[in-house]
Design a protein that fits this description.
The chain has 208 residues and is an alpha/beta fold. It has a single domain, classed as Rossmann fold, CATH 3.40.50.150. The chain is 42% helix and 23% strand. The chain contains 8 helices and 7 strands. It has a 7-stranded mixed sheet with strand order 3-2-1-4-5-7-6, with helices on both faces. The longest helix is centred in the N-terminal third of the chain and has 34 residues. The radius of gyration is 19 Å and the shape is globular.
Length: 208
């Protein structure tokens, strides 16, 4: 009887573990979307095609600091870490504590830093970690729906935080994101990721 009970408990534990691995990231992402729909922007993770195409122009050999706004559950983080130099740093910034805690738990890499804060404070944040500027900054934030006029502020502060020759990488469902970038980046390359749910616009704003 004890053996049967122990077997059932062990089987249940295994089922919970499998469910956690399968639905854990999705549950975190869904929870974040429900709590902050105007900031998360989408309930669906970006595809590997979108990730690869967005990161394609990055000069990894000359990247010391890569910053990401709103990393969510790390769709871009691991591909970025795979491409980065051993002495480079990936710093992610998110206002959602659930996402920050999750990322700190799953990413075991000394090059990774997760900060609970606002992208509007990017310059102060990178300075606090001893960097004068970022080489590249990536964002999937829904600029057109951000509250308190944050879109223009984040675009302006991002431009100030990027080194000359670096770039602001943006993936968005709405092409309007380019309007927020245009006042601060003279050269903006455009792309489109059709193999994504939903298809999204890609923009690379280059710092002169």
């Amino acid at each position: 009887m004890i053996s049967s009970s122990l077997a059932k408990t062990t089987a249940l534990t295994r089922m919970k573990s499998r469910a956690s691995r399968l639905f854990g990231p999705r549950a975190i992402f869904f929870k974040g979307f429900i709590k902050h729909p105007v900031m998360v922007g989408s309930i669906i993770r970006s595809s590997s095609f979108t990730v690869g195409k967005t990161l394609a122009p990055v000069d990894w050999d000359n990247t010391k600091l890569f910053v990401e706004y709103g990393p969510g559950i790390g769709t871009f983080c691991l591909p970025i870490l795979d491409r980065m130099r051993p002495d480079a740093t990936l710093l992610v910034i998110d206002l959602k504590e659930d996402f920050v805690s999750y990322m700190r738990h799953i990413v075991r890499d000394s090059r990774f830093i997760a900060v609970h804060g606002s992208a509007a404070d990017v310059k102060a944040i990178i300075n606090n970690f001893g960097f004068a500027h970022a080489d590249y900054i990536l964002s999937g934030l829904a600029f057109s729906t951000l509250p308190n006029n944050l879109g223009p502020v984040i675009a302006e502060q991002t431009a100030k935080a990027i080194r000359p020759g670096g770039a602001f990488l943006v993936y968005q469902f709405r092409a309007r994101a380019r309007d927020f970038m245009a006042p601060h980046f003279r050269k903006i390359d455009n792309g489109y990721a059709i193999w994504n749910v939903l298809p999204c616009h890609l923009f690379w704003g280059w710092k002169e």
